[in-house]
């Protein structure tokens, strides 16, 4: 646990322009999250429509159920590594992601890292809000069929769900924890009920899972598997960066690590299997794969089943949207001007930016979702993760001067508040990963954008920082 600063140091930090209460280190008495809370966090965030759609899109892309399930499981085991590595400083020092980023990027340069993460979160917020609006639209149409004739019905529902999210934002992290504790076990049960429906309607798992892979040979399979695995890693690459926003409330390092390690890969695999199996069943039942569960529910004849399922979807979507897509950008925007932008104000900015990202286009089809959205932002977040992990574990050996993270002229001032070595490493890592879009011969760089960006930026940052320390040592002698 980090040492408690003196009253003089606390006063100096509290008076800094880089400080506000929302970004402050969490005191020991407020670090109350247990292993259950972190397990519930991942259960509640994993059991959502986008997890279902991610797995279902792999089936639609040509994989059989075993290939799709293995891709999701392996991808989540991979992303668990940076997740746990970035969790440690949050749990140890009680600081959120944008403050941790100041150690590597500088007290002002961290705004770049925070903005990149915030922009991606705004996109996810818009996507989840669009799905929630779609669920409300289907729910209203089920109860009142004439609603289907309303020209702007889907848009009205979209903005209604947007307003619900806006209202919930003011409750903060403690409200999210309460929602997770209630919704997590219920949502698992709803998923199992949906699987039971598919089993009965398709007359067993045999017909449901009999669809073969559409790939003629292994090279053809790899052409889809590589970007699919990259997209699966990119799915939670966002949270692997800002996980300190949650682990700062942990009772200890071990509690949060165990909760995450147990719940993330297992819950993702379970709910992905539901998406895979149910999507496969739709081929048997309806003659075509339906990867959107809301669209699938609109075909059900039982009004009661539709209403219950859609209400559960709305609860899950609201839960993951606030937990995964508001907490981080609200802190990130607050980091830009701590004295002017509070957590609540940052959340409001996120709401409007999410609409501006035009989520209906990001969800146009599985190709734009996996190959465009997931792989695209993975090229930016992979380098950020590489730089932050390298800095914390290799450069600083897990030792941070917490007070200096909130002060100008301290250990993390670098050059005018910016560590240009980190900025250069980020540019190199992202540039190499994105080169595959511009140069067809190097397409594999983009297909593995998260991995390439992480490795290149990690190496570049360590090289730059090692060279700088060597130069300083030579100058001093």
Describe this structure as you would to a colleague.
With 477 residues, the chain is mostly helical. It has helices at residues 7-14, 35-46, 49-60, 65-93, 97-105, 110-143, 153-169, 172-201, 205-208, 218-235, 237-242, 244-247, 253-286, 293-297, 303-325, 327-336, 343-356, 359-362, 366-395, 420-438, 443-447, 449-476. Helix 3 (49-60) crosses helix 19 (366-395) and helix 5 runs antiparallel to helix 6. The protein is globular and about 70 Å long. The mean pLDDT is 83.
Assigned CATH superfamily of the domain at 35-364: Hydantoin permease
Number of strands: 0
Which class do the helix and strand fractions yield? mainly alpha
Question: In terms of per-residue confidence, which ranges show pLDDT below 50 for 5 or more consecutive residues?
Answer: none
For the record, the CATH class of the domain at 35-364 is: Mainly Alpha
Features:
single chain; 477 residues; mainly alpha; Hydantoin permease; 22 helices; globular
Outline the fold blueprint.
Elements: H1 7-14, H2 35-46, H3 49-60, H4 65-93, H5 97-105, H6 110-143, H7 153-169, H8 172-201, H9 205-208, H10 218-235, H11 237-242, H12 244-247, H13 253-286, H14 293-297, H15 303-325, H16 327-336, H17 343-356, H18 359-362, H19 366-395, H20 420-438, H21 443-447, H22 449-476
Helix pairs in contact: 2-8, 2-13, 2-15, 3-4, 3-13, 3-19, 4-10, 4-13, 4-19, 5-6, 5-19, 6-7, 6-15, 6-16, 6-17, 6-19, 7-17, 8-13, 8-15, 10-19, 16-17, 19-20, 19-22, 20-22
